[in-house]
Amino acid sequence: MSFFKTLYLNITQPQWIITDKKTKGHAFGYFFLFVLFTSFLTMVPLFVGLPKGLDIVQDFLQNKTPDFTIKMENDSLSVENIPLPYIYGPNEDNFYLEIDTTKTAESIALQDIIKTESLSGVLLGNDEIHFFDNTSGEYHKQSFKDISENFTVTRGDIQDKIQSINTLPKTSGIVIFLILIFSFFFSLGKLIYLLLIVSIFFLIVSKKTQHTFGEIFTFGLYAITIPTIIKSLLPFIPGLYTISLVLVLTYMLFPQVFRKKGNTKTEEVIDGKKEGKKE
To answer: How far apart are CA 14 and CA 164, in angstroms?
Structure first.
């Protein structure tokens, strides 16, 4: 069965895999293809926007910065040909950049400007570089002590590097590499989380079903489809993925729970066998 047909069935008829014993062996193949497919969709905006972003950086360097030189010597950064502190922003995109290699990055970070709501930016001192995003509350530091070699970089060097990267083959290669890395960690995370959820789920329903833990885990490899789509559409609702996954697994194993009462005849699927039942 093709990947897209399996994807369609997982969205429209999640219970189909219960009775399709032949396809159960393809579960891991579908799982990894689905993760790769969703990773690709996630990276499409990056693929489209990367060349434009590089052009913006190139224009910024050419028209809004002097011909600077950056030197790294003995774990200390210095910038020449730029009046310090060099400050850019905040602009219309709420981005802020400050470079002052006469100070430590920590002393720059004490300013009230970086505490502004919705502001993101970069602080560059003589010992560290800081990245902050007040929208998400993230704050990262990178010490220059991790850089073992001394170096000198000019504005022209950076522009030449950007120009060499900003070609379709190279930007495509960057995006493909990121897709593969993202897919690997995304797959690993989903497998570990699925194993946890299925373990708890199996402990609860083990006396109500004849399916083994391995079979339910296999069903779960298909069941992640709908929760992943829902979570991507509504990313800010906490616990939505977990709730959706449990509901899909419950529907796959116990569909009668979701059927309306009062039907003269219902068709129940219990442990892979269809049975007609009069009410």
So the answer is: 47
Residue in this structure with the two tokens 């009775």, named with its chain if needed: 19
Which one, of 7, 43, 27, 31, lies nearest residue 181 by Cα? 43
For the stretch 41-79, pLDDT in tens is: 888 877 777 788 888 888 888 887 788 888 888 888 888
Q: What are phi and psi of 53, to 5 degrees?
A: -65, -40
H or E element in which residue 98 lies? strand 95-99
Whether pTM exceeds 0.85: no
Say which residues have a Cβ less than 8 Å from residue 5's Cβ, sequence separation at least 6: none
Distances in Å between the alpha carbon of 64 and those of 60, 77, 82? Answer: 5, 21, 11
Residue 11 pLDDT exceeds 80: yes
DSSP H helices, 125-239, are 155-165, 168-205, 213-223, 225-233
Give the tokens for residue 191.
Answer: 């497998």
